[in-house]
Amino acid sequence: MSNLDLKPEPTLCGGREEVSAQPVRELLTGKVVPLGESTVVRRLLPNLGRRMVGAWCFVDHYGPDDIEREPGMQVAPHPHIGLQTVSWLHDGLVEHRDSLGSLATVRPRELGLMTAGRGISHSEQSPKQHGRWLHGAQLWVALPDGDRQAEPAFEHHPDLPEAVGQGVNARVILGEVDGARSPGRTFTPIVGADLTLTPGADARLPVEPDFEYAVLGMKGTVVVDGAVPVEPGAMLYLGCGRRELALRAEGGGSVLLLGGEPFEEKLVMWWNFVARTDAEIRQAREDWMGGDRFGRVRGFDGAPIPAPPVPPTPLKSRGRVR
Predict the structure, then answer these.
(1) 8 Å CB contact between 121 and 291
(2) What is the CATH number of domain 11-260?
(3) What is the pTM (predicted TM-score) of this model?
(4) For the segment 38-73, what is each residue's pLDDT rounded down to a tens digit?
(5) Per-domain residue ranges of the chain
(6) What DSSP string describes 27-92?
(7) How far is residue 64's CA from residue 130's CA, in Å, rounded to a whole number?
């Protein structure tokens, strides 16, 4: 998915110095951003006070949207470098096309995982024949320096492992939860899981004390860490230092658990690019607007998205919070 902001702010993040070694409870609300023709998203990362959770560097939540008489998601071809994109649906269908020639229809609770590496372009759209509802999340994972020039790739995993117990079903998106491991390729210690809680669930999920975590609300009200109600479209940042995470849902609900080892490297993120220097960002933009680095997405009916102007002042990498 693209960042369609016409005046994107550079996001400067990474490094361990701002990561809390102790558990915290920091409730984040999303910035409302239009996406394509008829979709509005709530942007949770990067946020005013928080830029990353492990290697997770971008989180959009959208829906549930009634698209019965709308085109739904319509994101034209656009480029990426230095990251992975994770497409995750609760309702609806998204058709993925990319410059490698990949064509896949991602369905609810299936993993669409694209590794941009040195450069790729893709489009995402609701099929012409689609259902009434569209609801999901789009997430980016920053690649470490040694892997960010990797060959681009796309994976579609319809069947993902699950860990079940205490009224919680954990479908593992990336990494591992309670012995269940995702087939999705990862480059840093990371975890992502879709947690569905039955009505009355009161559970304790094992987590890694060296990981930092956040919980994104998807459906219903889920009380996290024994104290904080997390509603759909909100995200609770938890810091590090836990060995288990308390979850409770009187009426049932679902959340996404995102976590990972704090990302050591400092990076700069602008528009759809994750890099390390101002020069890399400017070169990527130039290549998208006039070169052949990102290839061509075939089969999408429409023009690619032009890149906005880069800010006149140099982009510098800094820490992970403002």
Answers:
(1) no
(2) 2.60.120.10
(3) 0.92
(4) 678 999 999 887 899 999 999 999 999 999 999 999
(5) 11-260
(6) EEEPEEEEETTTEEEEEEES-SS---BTTEEEEEEEEEEE-TTS---EEEEEEEBSEEEEEEEEES
(7) 14
